[in-house]
């Protein structure tokens, strides 16, 4: 789970950097990169949800 969280963190940082570049500077290429990164983030977040639920069920 630690590795998964690290992957999410790296992707989220890249997304925020590119999204802010698009917002602040009007950088269209950065917007494209941000959209691509958001598509990569989605399955990682779904996987985190599954792993997190399994972890919380074991502790009950």
From TrEMBL:
InterPro entries assigned: Hc1
Domain of life of the native organism: Bacteria
UniProt-listed Pfam families: Hc1
GO molecular function: DNA binding; structural constituent of chromatin
Function in brief: Might have a role analogous to that of eukaryotic histone proteins.
Family label: Belongs to the histone H1/H5 family. HCT subfamily.
Protein name per UniProt: Histone H1
Protein source organism: Paramuribaculum intestinale
Phylogenetic classification of the source organism: Bacteria, Pseudomonadati, Bacteroidota, Bacteroidia, Bacteroidales
